[in-house]
């Protein structure tokens, strides 16, 4: 199997845990983030931490390895093990909550994690009005802002990675077929 084809087939779900690239929230409101993980990690502990660097990230809340929701200071985490996603809700958010956060899985060896940029907008701006309208729309328990960002990332992956690789593979196959037809006619 050619290497590009292997890459194409391995791209979907290549990471063990995935979340939106970024989410936005309104000051004083709440932000909900959904991170999906592969089924093999269902009974492992999940966590939410804050910090731009993995090594310096401070854990804010962690599950017990079950589906029981765990609450911390203005943060809660729940694990839907049957559908393989965790949900983190940050409440009464402030502008100084703007930072990089990580949703992760505790395991032996290095943990698994996905970075998420959380931005909290001050009330009263045009952007906060738009964010408020988006966050009211929910899909399967996900905040609309998170879903839009997550869907956009998947679309970008499709358009800028998978489609070009597929077109290259088709071009190579047609080129090779043309070479074999030319060699047969000579």
From TrEMBL:
Residues forming coiled coils: none
Keyword vocabulary terms for this entry: Disulfide bond, Membrane, Signal, Transmembrane, Transmembrane helix
Lipid biosynthesis recorded as keyword: no
Superkingdom of the source species: Eukaryota
SUPFAM superfamilies hit by this protein: Immunoglobulin (SSF48726)
Segments crossing the lipid bilayer: 155-176
Family matches, as CDD domains: IgV_pIgR_like (cd05716)
GO cellular component: plasma membrane
Subcellular compartments: Membrane
Sequence ranges assigned to domain Ig-like in this UniProt record: 4-119
InterPro entries with a match to the protein in the record: CD300_family_receptors (IPR050671), Ig-like_dom (IPR007110), Ig-like_dom_sf (IPR036179), Ig-like_fold (IPR013783), Ig_sub (IPR003599), Ig_V-set (IPR013106)
Principal place of residence: membrane
Protein name: CMRF35-like molecule 7
Species of provenance: Puma concolor (Mountain lion)
Organism lineage: Eukaryota, Metazoa, Chordata, Craniata, Vertebrata
Gene: LOC112864547
């Amino acid at each position: 199997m050619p290497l590009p084809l292997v890459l194409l087939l391995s791209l979907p779900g290549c990471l063990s845990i995935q979340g939106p690239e970024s989410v936005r929230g309104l000051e004083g409101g709440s932000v909900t983030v959904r991170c999906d993980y592969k089924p093999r990690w269902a009974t492992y502990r999940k966590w939410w931490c804050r910090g731009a660097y993995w090594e310096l990230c401070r854990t804010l809340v962690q599950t017990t390895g079950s589906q029981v929701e765990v609450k911390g200071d203005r943060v809660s985490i729940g694990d839907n093990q049957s559908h393989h996603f965790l949900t983190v809700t940050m409440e009464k958010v402030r502008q100084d909550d703007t930072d990089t956060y990580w949703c992760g899985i505790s395991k032996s060896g290095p943990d698994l994690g996905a970075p998420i940029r959380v931005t909290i907008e001050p009330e009263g701006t045009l952007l906060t009005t738009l964010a408020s309208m988006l966050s009211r729309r929910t899909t399967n328990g996900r905040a609309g802002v998170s879903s839009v960002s997550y869907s956009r990332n998947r679309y970008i992956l499709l358009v800028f990675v998978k489609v070009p690789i597929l077109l290259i593979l088709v071009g190579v196959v047609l080129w090779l077929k043309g070479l074999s037809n030319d060699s047969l006619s000579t």
